[in-house]
């Protein structure tokens, strides 16, 4: 029987989906890790011993040695991918990456749009071009992974039209950006594979992006991401592959976080310890990482919402960063029944422990 585990963030992102994915990869070393939302804006940190990698264009099983797959719901930036591949290869990670033909491709012009559009900046963009790519693909100026292996003149024509779409008129500037983009495209051996490729694996690990409270359909507008961050996309892929044995791994830190602007409940500055490996640091687009106390009503909202997309799955809870703050947990307020509750006491997944008996 084919099986699947789906990792979902319960908050505004940065919950610990990377370390949770690595934990599952360690238990299931013959699996493939699938990204089913978002794209190169992810910053999923994995530490294994003295090795550390922030996964963005590769799934968070790569440092552990598992291959990656990007679904049609994801975006891919070839230049960011190329740069990360070099770093991952130096660390001895697995750089095997398969991409669905209909994954959306980010261009330098999309990144420019994200970083220079006032509305995007106000909404809390990561500055990686994801939102602009998704928005552009709603119209006629589409660019997919399959186009990266199309005849060169066809790809060139599409890139130039995308530049004009954003208002670029300087021919030399367009040529410089396009030429560099194409040079990088030529450096990569593209594995363009539809979902039938996944049938060779008996277990699939689905790694979510951001969190349910940033979902494009369910978050508080306008400060949402351009993706379905629930289990919706992952369940559609499982249905396509006829996988029914599915486990959910819902992730939250031991406190609330939000990196970027927008509404956040229970917000207050927390005094944290043992957080030297924090990846979500200040940047020009999202500013400082915001913190707050756990909001159990919001956790219940996220859990009940996602159950509408994953009605028959077994549910587990993962609590990360438990060594960073001392708090009295009130999980009796959660209305979801969990098969297991796990706690993480380290940036390395070896710090995972089963905690079910402590909270029942």
From TrEMBL:
Catalytic activity as recorded in UniProt: IMP + L-aspartate + GTP = N(6)-(1,2-dicarboxyethyl)-AMP + GDP + phosphate + 2 H(+)
Single GO term (MF): magnesium ion binding
Localization of this protein: Cytoplasm
Cofactor(s) needed for function: Mg(2+)
Keyword Magnesium included in the entry's annotation: yes
EC number(s) stated in the UniProt entry for this protein: 6.3.4.4
KW S-adenosyl-L-methionine (keyword) present: no
Residue sites binding GTP per the record: 13-19
GO cellular component: cytoplasm
Main localization (coarse): cytoplasm
Residues reported in the UniProt entry to bind Mg(2+): 14
Pathway: Purine metabolism; AMP biosynthesis via de novo pathway; AMP from IMP: step 1/2
Pfam families noted in UniProt: Adenylsucc_synt
Note describing how the cofactor binds: Binds 1 Mg(2+) ion per subunit.
Keywords in alphabetical order: Cytoplasm, GTP-binding, Ligase, Magnesium, Metal-binding, Nucleotide-binding, Purine biosynthesis
SMART domains to which the protein is assigned, alphabetical: Adenylsucc_synt
HAMAP family associated with the record: Adenylosucc_synth
Family: Belongs to the adenylosuccinate synthetase family.
Subunit details: Homodimer.
Known function: Plays an important role in the de novo pathway of purine nucleotide biosynthesis. Catalyzes the first committed step in the biosynthesis of AMP from IMP.
Protein name: Adenylosuccinate synthetase
